[in-house]
Amino acid sequence: MAAVEFAESSNVPRERTSRYYRKERIEAMRAVLAQTKLNKPRPGLPSHQHERGIGPATVLAIGTAHPPTPFEQATYPDFYFEVTGCSDNTALKNRFRRICDRSGIDTRYFHMTQKLLQENPSICSYMDDSLDARQDIAIKEVPRLAERAAIKALQDWGQSRSSITHVVFATTSGINMPGADLALSRLLGLRPTVNRVMLYQQGSLGGSTAMRVAKDLAENNKGARVLTVVSEITCFTFRAPNEEHLDNLIGASICSDGASALIIGSDPKPGLETPLYEIHWCGQTILPESDGAIEARLSQAGLIYHLMQDVPRLMSRNSQSILSEALEVADFPEWNDIFWAVHPGGKTVLDEIERTLHLHPDKLEATREVLRNYGSMQGASVLFILEQLRKRSVELEHPTTGEGCEWGLVIGIGPGLTVEVTVLRSCPTFG
Ligand SMILES: CC(C)(COP(=O)(O)OP(=O)(O)OC[C@H]1O[C@@H](n2cnc3c(N)ncnc32)[C@H](O)[C@@H]1OP(=O)(O)O)[C@@H](O)C(=O)NCCC(=O)NCCSC(=O)/C=C/c1ccc(O)cc1
């Protein structure tokens, strides 16, 4: 009987079946597998089932890193206009200062210090040819920052790095071949047989998309341990302010550098691995009537971003329907009964989601803390928020890593305008 259920379940899209992950279902699967030897074909079971994990992909470790130099938001307008030679444009500078003041950010970290920027004047111009200078920085520094986050994740995991079977790497900072995934594998001394996936130009979706790819790898390859990394350095988008390009000024007021890493695998080894979050559902939606809302074009002058002013409104208008559909897997809990990690790509985006869904202020506190202390590190941000949620859960003595809630949502916002939603299930807190 159980074997038949298991065979049937393989015909159902795994990520869409709400009942699939119920405890009894997993128990039934475990019972079937206990009767037989794993990896041995069993009559009635498709042979490939033995090559797959049993349980859902699970976050087993988190690591984060940022460049060493902090920039206070209060003094950033002076720095930005001075280093780009635009201090005389007081009207634009005052406008930028107002935007920074209302950004909800206290501190950001950048690899690009005053010295480095002065050594690379083309990057400080508005539109000079500067691609080579930007690439030189990104090719070297993106994997290095990723390495620091990955080392922390490996320490958090406590297992040998030779057990890493896959690498998923996302960045919007630079393009090269072989990519940052190979550079990182070398820096970490991973096995040459590690299977890599490189995701370029996902923008602020990077963390969510990397988690979705890692989930599929972890669930479909028994024993897989997927190092999932996002690393972003703003050297591709930094440019002088210009009245004709106010959306660039918005980006300059919120974007920053950071890297984050997860280790994801199915079926945590009891006593050796600590499950932090189970990944139960992932999906993307292209928002209606959002063409051009967030887009970027690579040019001789670096990556030229365009943001439409109604991004926050597009988000709030569509969030109810997109998020409700995703939460089917969790039997539709109330918005205030789940935990939240929302891409902190601007305070107004967070305010709009909070207002539309009537969220209690503490629901987005972990998200706002990351925005306040680091700014928006594009795709790396949502994984920083998962770490923040875990820390807050321990500090505030919540029973689960989701601040006491069972289910939670990670929301990536990126080019398209695309929203990527990940449904997580929290785990018991340790420590
Ligand atoms: C916190 C912000 C940044 C500022 O708050 P605020 O000051 O209360 O906001 P306002 O809406 O009043 O905007 C301030 C000024 O900027 C103007 N503005 C407001 N967005 C716009 C606009 N997209 N166009 C062009 N004028 C505008 C707005 O008209 C207004 O002009 P003014 O009253 O004359 O000073 C807030 O606008 C906000 O959260 N915006 C949403 C940002 C957003 O779209 N995020 C999406 C994901 S992040 C992302 O994809 C990043 C990309 C990126 C982009 C560039 C880069 O270099 C690098 C990366």
Beta content? 15-25%
The low-confidence parts are: 1-22, 35-39
Small molecules held by this entry: p-coumaroyl-CoA
Instruction: Order the strands across the largest sheet as they lie in space.
Output: 5-4-6-7-1-8-13-12-11
Please write the string of helix (H) and strand (E) elements: HHEEHHEHHHEHEHEHEEEEHEHHHEE
Q: What is the arithmetic mean of pLDDT?
A: 91
Determine the number of helices (DSSP H or I, runs of at least 4 residues): 14
Task: Give the termini separation.
Answer: 41 Å
The secondary structure category is: alpha+beta
The overall strand count is: 13
Radius of gyration: 22 Å
Question: Largest sheet, if any?
Answer: 9 strands, mixed
Helix content: 25-40%
**Molecular shape:** globular
How would you describe what is shown here?
This protein has 431 residues and is of the alpha+beta class. The chain has 14 helices and 13 strands. Strands 5-4-6-7-1-8-13-12-11 form a nine-stranded mixed β-sheet, sandwiched between helices. A two-stranded antiparallel sheet has the order 2-3. Strands 9-10 form a two-stranded antiparallel ribbon. Strand 12 (407-414) and strand 13 (418-426) form a beta hairpin. The longest helix is centred in the middle third of the chain and has 27 residues, at 131-157. The chain is globular, with a radius of gyration of 22 Å. P-coumaroyl-CoA binds next to helix 4, helix 10, strand 10, helix 11 and helix 12. InterPro entries: Chalcone/stilbene_synt_C (IPR012328), Chalcone/stilbene_synt_N (IPR001099), Polyketide_synthase_type-III (IPR011141), Thiolase-like (IPR016039). It holds the Pfam family Chal_sti_synt_N. This is Chalcone synthase. Belongs to the thiolase-like superfamily. Chalcone/stilbene synthases family.
